[in-house]
Amino acid sequence: MARPAPGELTFVAPRGATKPPRHLADLSPAERREAVAAIGQKPFRAKQLSQHYFARYAHDPAEWTDIPAAAREKLAAELLPDLMSVVRHISCDDDTTRKTLWRLHDGTLVESVLMRYPDRVTMCISSQAGCGMNCPFCATGQAGLDRNLSTAEIVHQIVDGMRALRDGEVPGGPARLSNIVFMGMGEPLANYKRVVGAIRRLTDPEPDGLGLSQRGITVSTVGLVPAMLRFADEGFKCRLAVSLHAPDDELRDTLVPVNTRWKVREVLDAAWEYAEKSGRRVSIEYALIRDINDHAWRGDLLGRLLKGKRVHVNLIPLNPTPGSKWTASRPEDELAFVRAIEAHGVPVTVRDTRGQEIDGACGQLAASER
User: Fold this and answer.
1) What class does CATH assign to 84-369?
2) Where do the domains of the chain lie?
3) Which Pfam families would you find in this protein's record (predicted)?
4) Annotated catalytic residue: which of 111, 153, 273, 334?
């Protein structure tokens, strides 16, 4: 058995699970031409197929009028198989926040969320089914890891979101997706190869990819240091978001168990290397949990760790999961925490929480379906 690449964790697939079928979005442009030729079609059909998928979001072979009818079904079966289906959409915020529960080809469930704001549209996507990081306050972490998503399963969440925006399914008229955050189910850097492949598909120019800007993509991590360093060498201009949740090792060992392997300072040093190589400011994600990590002295410690760095702190009022002992901080404690960080000149904002009435925390909708 081959050893995983640095930062890529092994996983145990659910019993009976099968590998996702090969899809156009799994392949580079050169690999697509080879795949098309291998099934007896002219290599230029790969470009046509890419145009339909990445530029027109046209999944129905009947719409591919520039391809002979006799070739459409074969191309669809070999390169555009059905990867996932919508179990249901649920919406809130006057339908400008839409959460989608997907069923993958093997029955596995994952989620994505599309959020429309007055000045932008953001989509939060999953990179794994479940998560193996075991953070106790996280609904996905409580469920454990089912499996990694394929590159195409990651990409298809965005393709469908872009189609929905184009077709006016989200109120406000047709729109273009402006931001993608890898903050859904899973630890993106534990599925390193496929996440990097997805970023390339998302940002390759049309029709080879979706033509999105790397600067509009945020990749989160709990702090897999070898993978963070590897990611810094990819040459991306994406933003890196570190889910820190505690500035001291004693507490973070409990809240983010991977901290027992890579400590706070190691994680931050890797983040600063990414900032230096990418030229992008690092986002520090911090879920405020009442009486656990929201003490003003911890805000002061966090400010001291981050002072003078290319960084922004994103405080997240915890979206509690049913039956959990964890809950959001009191308003006065949140304010004191913010002021403790700001005292060190570190920029900080409190995230606008959306989707609480639709099982907003990642993993809640999939858990309720199970």
Assistant:
1) alpha beta
2) 24-79, 84-369
3) Radical_SAM, RlmN_N
4) 111
